[in-house]
Design goal:
By secondary structure, the protein is mainly α. The chain contains three helices and no strands.
Length: about 80
């Protein structure tokens, strides 16, 4: 996910290049790049804050279930292949 700050930096970069461009075709290309960056910002899902990201990772489903030993007369003991 791209941050708004990064998008603003890229937009400023292309705006400065467009201001210094002499050729109209180059200006139009740079303005199209700015439009594309704006479209990315406007059409992407809501940007989650850093706190929301950290909460997702700390409460995420990365917990492994506790393993229970199954008593089965056909089992071979503590093998990982015991079902």
């Amino acid at each position: 996910m791209i941050s708004y700050e990064r998008l603003f930096m890229e937009i400023e970069h292309y705006a400065l290049k467009a201001k210094g461009a002499k050729d109209e075709q180059e200006i139009r290309e740079l303005l199209s790049a700015i439009r594309a960056l704006c479209d990315v910002a406007l059409n992407s899902p809501r940007h989650a804050t850093l706190a929301e990201h950290s909460q997702i990772f700390t409460t995420g489903g990365n917990h492994l279930p506790s393993s229970m030993k199954i008593d089965d007369e056909d089992a071979n003991g503590d093998s990982i292949f015991d079902f």
